[in-house]
Write a structure and sequence with these properties.
GO terms for molecular function: ATP binding; ATP hydrolysis activity. InterPro entries: ATPase_AAA_core (IPR003959), DEATH-like_dom_sf (IPR011029), P-loop_NTPase (IPR027417). This is ATPase AAA-type core domain-containing protein. It holds the Pfam family AAA. With 374 residues, the chain is of the alpha/beta class. It has 3 domains: 92 residues, Death Domain, Fas; 163 residues, P-loop containing nucleotide triphosphate hydrolases (Rossmann fold); 56 residues. A 5-stranded parallel sheet has the order 2-3-4-1-5, with helices on both faces. It is globular, with a radius of gyration of 23 Å.
Length: 374
């Protein structure tokens, strides 16, 4: 059987999801573990081949890092592992309990609240995708500005079917085909990753969904969006060609419309030639930055100190949350932060105009990233 080289997307795995993956692995007997791991290694290469013959837990972690299994997508656990386990009932109960807890969390609003200061952006992007002529919209902007957050909120508002694939660390078109194919049919083990197969499957979905439009969200497409060197230009041209293949003719009688939403740090090359749209996600305005900062549960901060902290963050949501996390966990205080980083940043502003979150954290003495919980 053919196999594919899988690519890690470095998705963060929450402790509760790790607990579920560990619990699922513990339900299988040694023989069942060997069989499951062997099957995974047969169909997937890369880092899976480095795992022990019974180390299903590490294999599941790799799947989670690739986005092939997540807190909201347990198809792989339910469809691949559960039927093979002798303790089917116990395994199903574990998965079902996790799903119920997850649903309760979402319903109770314990998840991070929606957008702050992006309401107008959300309206514009939704209008571009639903009422305008846009078929592909690329949300671009600097790291941490909130592109993915805006895209996720857009997807949540989409009235029809929606699919998501994360391209972080993906560098080849075959991996693009594989991840899109897996997003469209997550309940199957996909071995072939030819572009034509993905395009054909999308046309079938559009034929079946005649009464509602489809949204395909492709996150972190940086490697395929820009770049001036010959290799990047070639990769971008093939990526745009693939998107055009998925879209098909503009007027497709008897089929639903397909819209594609991208996120990238740069504009999409050849966008105008392909009639694609770039939408820049800008830094938050001052009042929105203040609201976001105060919503992080940091307690009391003097007004003048908050003013200076927000100036340093310059409307970047990721940096605002990181700064708030430092204060909330009392790793250091606002005065110490300002003493440490205010002067260096003022003297040597970064080229982008907004300091990277990593630089902000590393600027504070004796502070390590693993101490901070966002």
């Amino acid at each position: 059987m053919a196999s594919v080289e899988t690519i890690s997307t470095s998705e963060e795995i929450s402790p509760r999801f790790q607990k579920l993956l560990r619990g699922v692995s513990d339900e299988l007997s040694p023989e069942e573990l060997r069989h499951a791991v062997s099957s995974i290694k047969t169909n997937f290469r890369g880092k899976f081949e480095d795992q022990g013959e019974q180390d299903l837990y590490s294999c599941l972690q790799l799947f989670a890092k690739q986005g092939l299994v997540s807190e909201d997508n347990l198809t792989l656990l339910e469809g691949f592992l559960s039927p093979k386990a002798s303790k089917k009932k116990s395994l199903k109960e574990k998965i079902q309990q996790f799903k119920e807890n997850r649903q309760q969390e979402v319903s109770s609003g314990k998840e991070e609240p929606g957008l702050t200061g992006r309401e107008r952006d959300l309206e514009k992007v939704m209008a571009m995708l639903t009422t305008g002529s846009s078929r592909v919209v690329n949300l671009h902007g600097i790291s941490g500005v909130g592109k993915t957050k805006l895209a996720i909120e857009t997807v949540s508002k989409w009235p029809g079917r929606k699919f998501k694939a994360d391209f972080r660390e993906i560098t080849e078109m075959k991996d693009v085909h594989f991840h899109v194919l897996n997003a469209l049919v997550p309940d199957k083990t996909n071995i072939s990753f030819e572009a034509n197969l993905v395009v054909e499957l999308m046309q079938q979905l559009r034929q079946a969904e005649q009464n509602s439009d489809i949204l395909l969200f492709l996150d972190n497409v940086d490697k395929f969006a820009g770049g001036d060197d010959e290799a990047s230009t070639f990769l971008n041209a093939n990526f745009v060609k693939f998107l055009q293949g998925l879209l098909g003719p503009k007027d497709y009688p008897g089929k639903s419309k397909l819209k594609i939403l991208l996120t990238s740090r740069s504009t999409l090359r050849h966008a105008k030639l392909a009639n694609f749209d770039n939408y820049e996600v800008m830094a938050l305005e001052k009042i929105s930055s203040s609201v976001l900062f105060q919503n992080q549960g940091i307690g009391s901060v003097r007004e003048d100190q908050m003013e200076k902290l927000l100036q340093i963050c310059q409307g970047n949501p990721l940096i605002i949350k990181g700064m708030a996390a430092i204060l909330r966990q009392q790793i250091t205080d606002d005065t110490r932060i300002l003493e440490t980083i205010e002067q260096p940043l003022a003297a040597e502003p970064p080229e982008s105009g907004i300091p990277a979150a990593e630089e902000m954290i590393c600027a504070i003495p004796h502070l390590k990233e693993d101490k901070i919980s966002f």
